[in-house]
Queue: 3 jobs
Job 1
Amino acid sequence: MSAGSNAMSSEQKEQAAGADEIVQVRRQGDVSIVTMNYPERRNAFSMRMRVALTEVLHRLMHDDPQTRAIVLTGAGGHFCAGGDLSEMHASTAQLLALRERIAVGVRLFKLIYTGTKPVVAAVEGTCYGAGLSLAAACDVVVGADTAKYSCAFGKVGLLPDTGILWTLPQKVGGSKARELMLKGDVIDAAAARRIGLVSEVVASGGALDAAIVAAARFASYPPVTLALLKASLVNAGNSIEDACRLETDLNPLTRQTSDHAEAVTAFLEKRKPVFTGA
């Protein structure tokens, strides 16, 4: 056996190193797959989970040019059951500590929603509370036909957090978002797809594979254009003037990229373009 056959690839090393971590990362081509790994509590959104997810996603968004798209999923057949109630001891909670807990969630939401790279949620099983917030922050949600969704904050005496006060109305409309937040009802995959919360419904057990396919498609697009498009989608919805200003300001930037020139050349030469992010 050659020496090279015993060596682990960088992807294998990354996966092995994170095997016992609360957040695991592995790469498949240009797609990084981020797994919430707290299956004994259905990947509850503990403080440790919040911090670890924020650190991982910040690195992938800002310090990893090999990653062009991200898939967010959960271990053990569930996405995320929401906040970890075992941490919520009102008698010992301090105001500043509670503010920091919420602030970490806000930073994580902004990384996903306003980050430069597309994020696809792969949802199996439970997607409740902060889990729903994470899914709603993603650009695309692929869910299993057995997945269940609930904006369950009010049932435990909390206000919706991790950005869902913004994202849920954006995805499903103000009236439906208000209903989901006030009632906290559990809805099934068909209803989630019907109202626009979920982009694609697949057979149980197939959400991750389908999400990777969707993310790989995004990863094949020009990275600069995707980053500017995400920025436009975040900022263009405030007014018609904002939308027109962004169109006028940002479109000339994309026209100057090497990837745009490559796309035109590849089209004329009838071949697949090769984008470099330049």
Job 2
Amino acid sequence: MPHKKIMVALLALFGVFSVGISYSFYTPPHNLKVLPQDITHEKLDSIMHGFNTSLGVKCDFCHAKNKNGDRLDFASDENPAKDVARKMLRMTIDINKNYFLTDSTIHPAYLNTVTCNTCHKGDAYPAK
């Protein structure tokens, strides 16, 4: 029986330790200019994954590398494609808000009636 208590205590400690690790790697987003400042990590990841899928690109299409060049600096505005993405996001938000918004409690950035995929369909540079 004492072994069970030790095992439970170790598992509980490991759980706390692993949660601490996962939170230590997460940093809140910085430099959000279109998306809501209080966006959750999960919602932001979901939107970014939607961009990846809709345009057939990876994160470095819009996000510049850090000064060391070893990872992406998500807050940086060095890559001009990021500004284009913001303009396109404002456009889709405007379309959804003005033509499809039926629930005023939902932030327009979270509406999915018109999305990037509506025009891009997996192509970073859709036909005009």
Job 3
Amino acid sequence: MDSTQIIGLAAGILTACSLLPQVIKTFKEKKAEDVSLLMLLVLLAGLILWIVYGIKREDLPIIATNCFSVLVNVTMVILRIKYKQS
């Protein structure tokens, strides 16, 4: 693995983890009215496109990190819907 791949993997991991603090906060507080559902849906669409791009390029770090991001994002969407009016 060369330095470019290491940088790409690190960037993907950090980006994938960026929503985790919000997921944890929402889960603990059981409140999500300030979280934009539209933003989450736009992000989800972008992540899916990144996965397609990674598949077409056969780039496992892009595929893996964005798949993780989709899981985190879907979790946040579920929490947003569940705790919307709490």
